[in-house]
Write a structure and sequence with these properties.
Layout (H helix, E strand, L loop, with lengths): L1 E7 L5 E7 L3 H4 L8 E8 L4 E7 L2 E7 L3 E8 L1 E6 L2 E6 L3 E4 L5 E5 L5 E8 L7 E3 L1
Antiparallel strand pairs: 1-2, 3-4, 4-11, 5-10, 5-12, 6-9, 6-11, 7-8, 7-10
């Protein structure tokens, strides 16, 4: 479902957004065969958002130019973040500052699925693996 919203932003600039409702069942349709599935939801110069599904693991990496917030939608994983290691499960939230090493290994039978919000905008080119 898409809705058009209009409004006024700072300094009288007009903006228009497409409101969306997405279901993870629709986005991650069927059995996940790939290790990592990522779907871009929204992006502008200020931020990008993605739904990410991790079947096994995402190797330790960092984003040189942007920070990331991760909200767990389903599943669980052992996450490394800087010098810390902890379990993440549905409803948990983590903030990952720019240039911070992080990774996750799925521990649940189902894939580890998260909403990833990255600021400023991200196209993945600043990702560096350890």
């Amino acid at each position: 479902m898409k809705l058009k919203l209009s409004g006024i932003l700072f300094f009288g600039m007009i903006f228009q957004l497409d409101a969306q409702h997405l279901s993870t069942d629709t986005i991650f349709n069927g059995t996940q065969t790939e290790n990592i599935v990522s779907r871009r939801l929204f992006s502008d110069s200020l931020c990008s958002s993605f739904l990410v599904s991790i079947k096994n693991e995402i190797k330790v990496h960092k984003h040189v130019h942007h920070s990331e917030q991760v909200v767990v939608i389903s599943g669980s994983a052992i996450m490394s973040l800087g010098d810390s290691v902890f379990t993440m499960k549905k409803g948990d939230v983590s903030f990952i500052p720019a240039n911070t090493w992080h990774g996750a290994r799925t521990t649940s039978a189902e894939p580890f699925r998260v909403l990833s919000i990255q600021a400023p905008q991200s196209d993945g080119t600043d990702r560096v693996y350890k």
